[in-house]
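Shape is hard to put into words, and the shape of a protein is harder than most. The fold becomes a row of whole numbers, each drawn from a learned catalogue of backbone shapes. The outcome of that step, for a single protein, is printed below.
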Amino acid sequence: KTDFCDLYYLSGILDAEGTIGLNQRENKHRPAGETDRFTPIISLVNTNKEIITRCYSTLLNLGIGCHISTRDNMKRNRVRWDLLISGVKRCKDLSDYLKDKLVVKRHQNELLNLYCYHRLDNPKSINEMGYEYKMAIQKLNSES
């Protein structure tokens, strides 16, 4: 069901429950840290399927691809739903939509947006700036 499209609802849920950041992956064929790859991510984890469904519907209606996975937590007898938006183009598109709508994660979103634009402007460059962006976003995440 994809008839729900409320960007403010998605923004509120991401502000409260979401994660904005950069995943770092090591290049095993080069010296450590020289050409690590950084992937921007925006994710949401929740045990309520309806919340995830509404956010998924909004993303689809905005034309932003995402991935949903589930995990059973046998200790608490619950299913956990993970909604993941990853990749430079998808995260840039979503962060553009979220620019004026986030409150708590506004600065993380701004940094992620700058990083995505940098990557799109320099697609073949070695990603030496990724580490600085990752650390700056992590610092903001630990403060909020």
Observations:
- Residues 15 and 105 are 6 Å apart (CA to CA).
